Amino acid sequence: MDDASNTNGSTGAAHSPDQNIAMNAEWLATVSHELRSPLMAIKGYADLLLHYEDRLAEGERREFLQEIGKGSNHIASVLDRFLTLARFETGDVHVHLAPVDLLQLLQQVLLDFSESIGGEAGTVQRSIHILTEFDTPTVKDPQGSIIIMADRGLLQVVLIQLLDNAHKYSPASTPIDIGLGLDTAAQWRALVPEQVAAQIEPSQQMMVEIRIQDYGIGIPAHYHEAIFQRFYRVDMNLTRAVAGLGLGLTICQYIVTLHRGIIWVESLPDVGSTIHVLLPAQ
What we know:
alpha+beta, two-stranded antiparallel sheet, Heat Shock Protein 90, elongated, 8 helices, disordered N terminus
């Protein structure tokens, strides 16, 4: 397979000086908000504990400490994202390939993800389905597992990020569908969009597709490449209301590229989005 690093325009088109200034200003505003909000919460609760500790009930003190912990965790998460991006951009991340049971990994990710969103206020039970489309008997081992060569930890990062995006940008009452398919690179070349097909060598190498589909707000076509650029966030009312740095899909693309794979999006506004990940199976 050819280098997939430019498949979704992750390097981005050239911007004018004015555009770069505007993008940097927007990025600084986003980062400032992501750090300032939890810092202010931490300071406020800490001040209350320092000045009114004797007047606070034990339950109130515990609540304040929990909020301080929550804010601290958020700041640590933001900084960790920056450090992770820096490691990818300096080539300091290496893939350690080993046999991975894809279905087992998906089931574990879904269990962890369901538990994490289960604690959100007002969250209803989210319906997430795994849909397999394997027509060849060579895909599964005798025990029914789907085995691919991948870095389990890095692939887990991709799956969690894509599930988190689908959850954030679609109503909780709608399902999230996870599709799995496997075919030769030559067959995928005939099935995928033209700009993706250009990145696939017409060989008999088996490739597995993982796609995560939501039924949410969708993304206009002119944003499809830009969303993989670092710090880029679609300028829509709902996306502005959802916290984030615009690094998740950038990190996903780095990981997929390290696996010699391709990641792309198909989406329509008010219909939903499907993120596709195509990886060599061996």
